[in-house]
Specification:
The chain is of the alpha+beta class. It has a single domain, classed as PPM-type phosphatase domain (Phosphatase 2c, domain 1, 4-Layer Sandwich), CATH 3.60.40. Helix content is 34%, strand content 28%. The protein contains 7 helices and 11 strands. A hairpin with a 4-residue loop joins strand 2 and strand 3 (30-39). The chain is globular.
């Protein structure tokens, strides 16, 4: 098992409000990956994403260290809840951080037991046997319109309200997260990314790059380079894991 992550503020934004963290233990066949895309005035978005990543990772690693490791879906759900509470409490007690929040997408892998959790519009893609699947479903206004048939998926990519999310970590004391169990097999790849990547690349482009017989680091750098070449108006963060 191998994983790599990279982040960049892009070509337009002055600061990077994305954050990520990852942990792998090839001997135990375990991994934790988390990515957050913060929002809020001044540095509040950076604080929210950093706090959420840190709290999620701390809870996940603590769960892995126990004599009995819980199911990955339970670790993912609880870690996301703790991340949410951490950001919410900071926003509630520090007026400089009032209203801050962040997206969150994460993967928890313990041998054959794997789960993905998301809140917001940061995504997880799963490549298996050359086929790419979007695991997560965006919590966004445009996704709701696509689901209702009001707009098409192609129209959603360029819609002026495409960045309007309907759920975020830290805005309420209790969080609604989506959990997905996946049958992650040897040779499969997972991609976690912020919308700074998914807004600029098509699924076919992502599939082609993820399918390459190349290192996770080189794949991450290639995805980032392509986003930067296309203008990168937002922060771009990419994590890739191969089992």
């Amino acid at each position: 098992m191998n994983a790599f992550g990279i982040t960049d503020k892009g070509n337009v934004r002055a600061v990077n409000q994305d954050a990520f963290d990852l942990f792998t233990d090839p001997e135990k066949d375990q991994a934790l990956l988390v990515l957050c895309d913060g929002m809020g005035g001044e540095k509040a978005g950076e604080i929210a994403s950093s706090m959420a990543c840190s709290r999620f990772m701390a809870h996940g690693r603590e769960a892995f260290s126990g004599s009995v490791v819980p199911l990955s879906v339970d670790i993912a759900r609880e870690a996301a809840a703790w991340a949410n509470l951490s950001v919410y409490d900071k926003a509630y007690t520090d007026e400089r951080c009032s209203g801050m929040g962040t997206t969150l997408v994460a993967a928890v892998i313990n041998r054959s037991d794997a789960a993905v959790v998301n809140v917001g519009d940061s995504r997880c893609y799963w490549l298996a046997e050359g086929q790419l699947q979007q695991v997560t479903r965006d919590h966004s206004w445009v996704q709701e319109q696509v689901d209702m048939g009001t707009i098409s998926r192609s129209e959603a990519r360029s819609h002026p309200r495409k960045n309007l999310i309907t759920r975020a970590v830290g805005l309420q004391r209790r969080i609604r997260s989506d959990i997905f169990r996946i049958d992650l097999r040897e040779g499969d790849r997972l991609l976690l990314c912020s919308d700074g990547l998914s807004n600029l690349l098509t699924e076919e482009e992502i599939r082609r790059i993820l399918s390459a017989d190349d290192s996770e680091e080189r794949i991450c750098r290639q995805l980032l380079r392509l986003a930067l070449q296309r203008g990168a108006p937002d922060n771009v963060t990419v994590l890739v894991l191969r089992r």
